[in-house]
Amino acid sequence: MKKKRIFLSSPHMGGNEMKYIKSAFINNWIAPLGPNVDNFENQISKYLGNNIHVSALSSGTASIHLALKILGIKENDIVLVQSLTFCGSSNPVKYLNAKIVFIDSELDTWNMCPDSLNDAILKYKNKSIKAIIPVHLYGMPAKMDEIVSISKKYNIPIIEDSAESLGSKFKGKFCGTFGDISTLSFNGNKIITTSGGGAFVSKNKNYVKKSIFLATQARDKAPHYEHSEIGFNYRMSNILAGIGLGQMEVLNERVKRRRRINKFYRNFFKNIENIVFQSEPTNDFFSNFWLTAIIIKPNINNINNKKIISHLEKDNIESRPIWKPMHLQPLYKNSDFIGKGNCDYIFDNGICLPSGSNLSDEDLDRITFSLKKVFSI
Fold first, then answer.
1. How many angstroms from the chain centroid is the CA of residue 354?
2. Mean pLDDT of the chain
3. Are 101 and 51 in contact (CB under 8 A)?
4. pLDDT value of position 126
5. 221, 238, 235, 195: which is closest to 36 by C-alpha?
6. pTM over cut 0.85
7. Beta strands in the chain (DSSP E)
8. Which region holds residue 314: left if phi is over 0, alpha if psi is between -120 and 50, else beta?
9. Which of 1, 137, 320, 345 has the fewest CB atoms within 10 Å, i.e. is most exposed?
10. Helix (H, G, I), strand (E, B) or coil at 2
11. What is the per-residue DSSP string for 175-232?
């Protein structure tokens, strides 16, 4: 009999989600507004602290789109985007017909390289550079002190893509609180989920108010439906926000569990040569380890990332390659890239291991049994 599927990172309910969903049904709040939405926004704001304001939206991608709109990015403006990321970080720039320049990663955190970022700004200094989009890849904080310093030096705002990093910290400060605007994702595979959803985050209350206005079709104040600018249908529903409220109750537990799973893998691989983990470079970094990711250095006993992924799949265990850098994607073949190609190396040799907080001890035993066969141990 075929064994059950072990997923890379599946939804993990806390138990109280139905309480909030039932309340929405009982009170007929079946709409993209309501008390669950308000409470969910308040809970995120309280969690992040530092005078943070939040609007709950339909996705993290929607949040980045609105962030670009609110910062006034227009056609042919330049946006500097981390290349090693999911397309949700970059596609909204294309929505606005702005020009993307992709930035390489550094090998400490696998995130936006400050040196390459600075090189890009100097190269395009006579052009209209309007935003920087760093990403906290797989929950690992980027080098935000250096990135923020560059941002201030050149007066270029930061849209901080924290889609994968809720619960992560840099120098004791939560990811999602460094940017002029930040974004979160609550997709089904994230550390907490609303099934589908995201959030727009900022210390600037006016930015958040504007995001709500744009996310609800930009309806002007009038007794009838009046519209002076293009809006979008991007607001989170009251039902999905109810799921989010239940998930917020267990967020700290989920972070602890993901970190324990990361430690489990480190212990497994400790005696296997040429395995490099995405790791916290210093005590300044605290990752939620949303996904545990490793690099298999080339030419170790003919074992590579593709072989491991294929072998795990035969045992009905899901793993996946590292995000393919955006500058290598067919969609972005004509975009500029600044860097040494570190993100290409990470993609060519990396793998994301099953990391869900609902993995049982039996699941972990199955995974390691399968990996032992690959490495012949």
1. 17
2. 96
3. no
4. 76
5. 238
6. yes
7. 53-57, 78-82, 99-103, 129-133, 159-161, 169-170, 173-174, 181-185, 198-202, 275-277, 285-286, 292-296, 320-321, 336-338, 350-353
8. alpha
9. 1
10. coil
11. TTSSSSEEEEE--TTSSS--SS-EEEEES-HHHHHHHHHHHBTTB-SSSS--BSS---
Residues 6+ apart with CB under 8 A from 7: 318, 354, 356
Q: Judging by DSSP bridges, how do beta strands 173-174 and 181-185 pair with one another?
A: unpaired
Q: Chain centroid to CA 32: how far?
A: 23
- Structure tokens that stand for 138 in this block: 């797989």
Confidence category of residue 301, pLDDT binned at 50, 70, 90: confident
Q: Which residue has the tokens 């199955």?
A: 366
For 34-83, how does the pLDDT look when each residue is reduced to its tens digit (9 = 90+)? 999 999 999 999 999 979 999 999 999 999 999 999 999 999 999 999 99
The whole-angstrom distance between residue 138's C-alpha and the CA centroid of its chain comes to 7
129-133 β-sheet, strand order: 129-133, 78-82, 99-103, 336-338
> What's the pLDDT tens digit per position in 241-293?
999 999 999 999 999 999 999 999 999 999 998 999 999 999 999 999 999 99
